[in-house]
Design brief:
By secondary structure, this protein is of the alpha+beta class. The protein is built from 11 helices and 14 strands. The strands form 4 sheets. Strands 1-3-2-14-13-12-11 form a 7-stranded antiparallel beta sheet, sandwiched between helices. The protein has a 3-stranded antiparallel beta sheet with strand order 4-6-5. Helix 2 runs parallel beside helix 5 and helix 4 crosses helix 5. The chain is globular, with a radius of gyration of 19 Å. About 2% of the residues have low confidence.
Length: 371
């Protein structure tokens, strides 16, 4: 059995057991956290920060959580909406005039947040380094025509989500999304989560480990559709080696390059499950939280090839909302139970070749502690 460190209230012992089982069977290093009523009831970690299993996973170990970052980016938009600085029902062009080009004058902020804006593809980057040029990518998106009538269909905006939401935030606040998150969310909460990571934190990073039998050339991509065919990826293919590079850590990619651990992910997202506060800090009003779980779109997602319920920034699954990242990280919030559960790891699993229930097992274990 791998040693697990941290704290766990007795009624949530099943979470400790689920994390232990995952570390014994699948994981190299991982963390799990549960927040209830905005306070931590589970904060656990164990295993190793490296593939050689020579460096322990510590309390302050960070790792790339890929698309779990989208939860943080969406929260920033909801905070600004709650402050009256962004209207979710307003056209994006109200904040970003050039965006009205090519038939996008009717694209609303809520369309961007709910993956229904019709811009699931990047405008043309062909290598990962092109993603680091914010001005060029956002100018390309502003000039692009939507693939469908905005609001009528959904297609997961894997990378474009961060550029679109991030540019709205930048134009409203004068700050990059990463800066806004750091100053207005992470700092007041004391959350160790970073969108774009400063070099001073590099020594704490647990690199992501490619799925078993694959190398760090393993690349992200949309899952095959119902007919088994993949939607063609236009633009940059992101590999494990890219996510593990210093250039990626420094970049500003608010859809995908957040760094944290289960504690920091759960702490930040617990704000939305707990009426706008966590740890006694209020970030937004109870009403300001509601768009996180109010459905904007329900139906087949054209990119994911599966039925999806999208809210303003999150996937909705029954009574819960949240999203996960390439390789396995995950966060889910339940506003009825006032609970948020997060799981963050370094060992990736390729869902096309192997079922990955690690995060789900942690979530189910957390629910067992409520009864």
């Amino acid at each position: 059995m791998i040693d697990i460190s941290g704290v766990c209230e007795p009624r949530f012992v099943a979470v400790r057991e689920a994390l232990a089982a995952s570390l014994d069977e699948h994981d190299v290093g991982a963390s799990a956290a549960v927040y209830l009523d905005g306070e931590p009831v589970v904060d656990l970690w164990g295993g190793y920060a490296d593939a050689d299993r020579s460096i322990g996973w510590e309390r302050d170990t960070l790792t790339g959580v890929n698309s779990t970052t989208k939860n943080m980016t969406a929260l920033c938009a909801l905070v600004l909406a709650d402050r009256g600085l962004i209207d979710l029902s307003a056209p994006v062009a109200a904040y970003w005039p050039a965006f009205a080009a090519a038939g996008k004058e009717g694209v609303l902020v809520r369309h961007v947040l709910s993956h229904t804006a019709g811009l699931p593809q990047l405008p043309g980057p062909t290598v990962v380094e092109d993603l680091y040029d914010w001005e060029n990518v956002t100018a390309g998106l502003a000039a692009q025509a939507p693939e469908w009538e905005p609001g009528t269909a959904a297609g997961y905006h894997a990378l474009t989500f961060g550029f679109l939401v991030g540019e709205i935030v930048r134009r409203v606040t004068g700050r990059s999304l990463g800066e806004f998150f750091a100053e207005e969310v992470a700092k007041p909460l004391g959350a160790d989560f970073h969108i774009g990571l400063a070099a001073e934190h590099d020594h704490r990073v647990a690199p992501l480990i490619a799925p078993a039998s694959l190398t760090d050339e393993y690349a992200a991509g949309p899952p095959p559709g119902p007919d088994g065919a993949r939607r063609e990826i236009i633009g940059a293919a992101i590999r494990v080696k890219d996510v593990n590079s210093p250039a990626w850590r420094r970049a500003h990619l608010p859809a995908v390059n957040g760094f944290g651990n289960a504690r920091s992910v759960a702490l930040v997202q617990s704000v939305l499950a707990n009426g706008g506060t966590a740890g006694g800090v209020r970030l937004l009003s109870p009403r300001g939280c509601e768009p996180a779980w109010q459905e904007v779109f329900s139906g087949e997602d054209r990119v994911l090839g599966t039925p999806m319920s999208w809210t303003a920034g999150f996937g909705r699954f029954g009574n819960t909302f949240g999203w996960g990242g390439w390789g396995g990280s995950l966060v889910a919030s339940d506003p009825d139970a006032r609970m948020t559960v997060a799981y963050v790891m370094n060992q990736m699993i390729d869902r096309e070749r192997q079922e990955d229930n690690r995060g789900l097992e942690i979530i189910m274990a957390a629910y067992s502690g409520l009864h």
